[in-house]
Amino acid sequence: MRIGIICNSLSWGGLELFMGKIALWSKQEGHSPVIFCPPKSKIEAYAKENKLEYISFSTSWKYADLLAMYKLKKIFKKRQIETCLIGHSKDIGLLALTKKIFGLQCKLVYPQQMQIGVDKKDFLHTFFYNALDTWISPLPWLKENTLQRTRIKPEKVKVIPFGIDTQLFINNTTSQQEARKSLKISHNDLLIGIIGRFDPAKGQEYLVRALAILKGKGIEAKVVMIGEENVGDKRNYLQYLKSIMQELHLEDDVYIRPFQKQIQTAFKALDIFVMASIDETYGYVTLEAMASGLAVVGANAGGTAQIIKHQENGMLFENKNPQSLAQALMDVILHPEKRQAMSQKAQQEAQNTYDYRKQIHEMFG
């Protein structure tokens, strides 16, 4: 299938990386993707690095760039693009108008990556969203969120879980000792990990406080926090975390490490993974931990609450509650057979449900 991927963004974050990976993975599965992106953008660099076809494309106005619409229609017709994947919600309007004004013939597909926070039921949004052929929500709760916040026709909204390369994690042969050596972490301790940028919404504070509760009950464990602060972030959250560690006398019990390029190796260092984000829309890092064969303890909120099935493929704890998190961790730590059973089920579910090959097949056939 010939696929056009619109990523009209100069930024480089999870959304842009997601669109780049869809291009890469769909190519590996035998499709013919082409990325439409601004010149000198980060995703253009990604396309070059991964030998993906791309076409320079940008707009001057949010909706009313008629010249951009005309050029897009001509290119799509020449390239015989059958399906157009729209990366940003702000570009749905551009493609909807291209379809209405210039007769764009391909299917329009929008993969939802964020929940909708406010109602989008006005005439303009209703027209734009119903111009789509398919709105893809990766989890049922996001489908419900879409149907509640918009007037899109329900039959247009489909649930297709977004995937990861599960084999990258399942087939990783790095030993735990080697992984810990690469992170400069003791080989002998029970290690609990959390991975994500240092941000109050990611919940690292709750894990630090839960560790103090565990130690107060005589349970020995260490924590590693892997991540970095956002550039320009003036909240100094990492310094705040360090002050809590000092207050609770945990300086020797918590490791802080930067993001790892080989993240699959970082997972190998862990015994337990914690997803403490207070409102994670989806949570690729949760899927990666599951694929790595780890027991996952997650906050009962957002997408985490639908990915983790309590007491089956992981444990859920009350959101923002260190005491509840500590209790869930105790259950996992003190019952190693239960932990092993949950981690095996998590890995199997990651492979069966959240592999990118399944996603690409369901999206494009």
**Derived structural class:** alpha/beta
> How many individual helices?
16
CATH architecture level-2 label of the largest domain: 3-Layer(aba) Sandwich
The tally of structural domains comes to 2
The beta-strand count equals: 13
C-alpha geometry: elongated
- Measured distance between first and last alpha carbons: 8 Å
Q: Report the biggest beta sheet as strand number plus sense, adding barrel if it closes.
A: 7 strands, parallel
> Largest beta sheet: what is the strand line-up?
3-2-1-4-5-6-7
If you had to describe this structure to a student in words, what would you say it looks like?
- This protein is 44% helix and 15% strand.
- The chain is an alpha/beta fold and 365 residues long.
- The chain folds into two domains: 2-163 and 355-364, Glycogen Phosphorylase B (Rossmann fold, 3-Layer(aba) Sandwich), CATH 3.40.50.2000; 166-353, Rossmann fold (3-Layer(aba) Sandwich).
- A seven-stranded parallel beta sheet has the order 3-2-1-4-5-6-7, with helices on both faces.
- Helix 4 (92-102) crosses helix 5 (123-130) and helix 12 packs across helix 15 (336-353).
- It is elongated.
Gist?
Helix content is 44%, strand content 15%.
